[in-house]
Amino acid sequence: PSYTKADIKQIVQDEQVEFIRVTFTDVLGAIKNVEVPVSQLDKVLDNDLMFDGSSIEGFVRINESDMYLYPDLSTFMIFPWATDEHGGKVARLIADVYSKDRTPFKGDPRIALKDAVARAEAEGFTAFNVGTEPEFFLFKLDEKGEPTMELNDHGNYFDLAPLDRGENVRREIVLTLEKMGFEVEAAHHEVAAGQHEVDFKYSDAVDMADKIQTFKLVVKTIARKNGYYATFMPKPVSGINGSGMHTNMSLFDKDGNVFDGHDADKNLGLSDTAMHFLGGVLKHAPALTALANPTVNSYKRLTPGFEAPVYVAWSASNRSPMVRVPASRGLATRLELRSVDPTTNPYTVLAAILSAGLDGIDNKLEPSAHVDKNIYLMDENERKKAGIVNLPDTLLAALDELANDDVVIDAIGTHITDKFIEAKKIEYTSYRQFVSQWELDNYFMNY
Ligand code: ADP
Ligand code: MG
Ligand code: MG
């Protein structure tokens, strides 16, 4: 909703809000916030709230640590749950980060996404619309409130209670999201035990990225209230499906959905623009993987046999490739990128996907032919003939792809790219130094 400063002051007074939480997202995708008592509201609304950016992941050095938060007034909302012990109300505003000299900060992922959207607008598009399908697992909490590795149920895809014990939690999540302005389209039990999915209606990319961050907060909060721990880790349990966040997207202009080709017999009903966008996404897929799948654990999901993609390919009929073209046409004509997982930073990944697609449009890139066979049943030769390449299979390989892709680097800027790669290489090295149970099981007795 569009609020003025005066609207917000009025609501804060009428609802007796006690605290204002001003949030932003760091380079690695974590939500951060500065919370102030309501007496500081004017300062917040006047873009005068300062914080020390030097301790935020991927932000700045100690000697330039003063930063400003510029709240986006349209993101104002009061959390529908009590946030302190005496039940006082807390409101939030999502902010852009500005430097001390009051210029937009190059390390702010939300600003990077806004810049990418502005480039699309300059090419005549009115919106980059995105709808995501985030999945998560619910684990039981123990008596001390610590998460256990025990899943909340033994349910299966689209199961009903009593098998699906997550039903009540899921309903409460849906109702809470609706109170917060989400249009929830569907919520169901997923394929794995303890795994759930909630889908909400597509929106322009910045709003969707904001919603993804809010969504995670809601899921974690409501799960805990019900005695569960929610995790968006892509593969918490080996041997069963992991959690993805399929990302549906389309470009709109003043006449509607530009991806719709209006001719079912040509390109599966996709427009030339959609084909070129797809060509760009396929071309840049290896580098996009570093952002879409940014954790060591992400690559344990991207393995054959669990409905997650492993190859750079696209299809209309088949769910094994990286990009699927869902059957709906008209306003719902879209591309579904299936590799993305919920550990992604939604701002940087959407900036990068959009820029990859625009590169395809600008340079009229043609996608490879669509693959309608099950790719997992093709051998390496068949895949080679069909022009199908592998997605990077480790975080390190994906980071190397990112470091060599100027379109994706431009999309998020060199500040974010450098800080991201630096932090992720440290993460990878730390992982590599750890000796796992698998290694002990396989090597200890054999050597
Ligand atoms: P499926 O089951 O085929 O994977 P869903 O019906 O669950 O897909 O919908 C997935 C998402 O696609 C939803 O978030 C929906 O709002 C979104 N969506 C629908 N039309 C568009 C569009 N034109 N652009 C982007 N996202 C869209
Ligand atoms: Mg799903
Ligand atoms: Mg899907």
Concise structural overview:
By secondary structure, this protein is an alpha+beta fold. The chain is 34% helix and 23% strand. It starts with a helix and ends with a helix.
Overall form = globular
What is the percent of helical residues?
25-40%
Largest sheet: 11 strands, mixed
Question: Stretches where pLDDT falls below 50 for ≥5 residues?
Answer: none
Q: What's the pLDDT, averaged over the residues? A: 92
Report the count of strand segments.
Answer: 18
Distance between the termini: 64 Å
Structural class: alpha+beta
Q: How many helical elements? A: 13
Q: Compute the CA-based radius of gyration.
A: 22 Å
- The fraction of residues in strands falls at 15-25%
Bound molecules: adenosine-5'-diphosphate, magnesium ion
Task: Give a structural overview.
The chain is α+β, with helices and mostly antiparallel strands and 447 residues long. Strands 6, 7, 8, 9, 10, 11, 12, 13, 15, 16 and 17 form an 11-stranded mixed sheet that branches. A 5-stranded mixed sheet has the order 2-1-5-4-3. Strands 14-18 form a two-stranded antiparallel ribbon. It is built from 13 helices and 18 strands. The longest helix has 27 residues, at 406-432. The radius of gyration is 22 Å and the shape is globular. A hairpin with a 5-residue loop joins strand 6 and strand 7. The mean pLDDT is 92. Adenosine-5'-diphosphate (ADP) binds at residues 129-131, 133, 185-186, 199, 201-202, 246, 248-250, 257, 326, 331-332, 334, 336. One magnesium ion (MG) binds at residues 133, 246, 336.
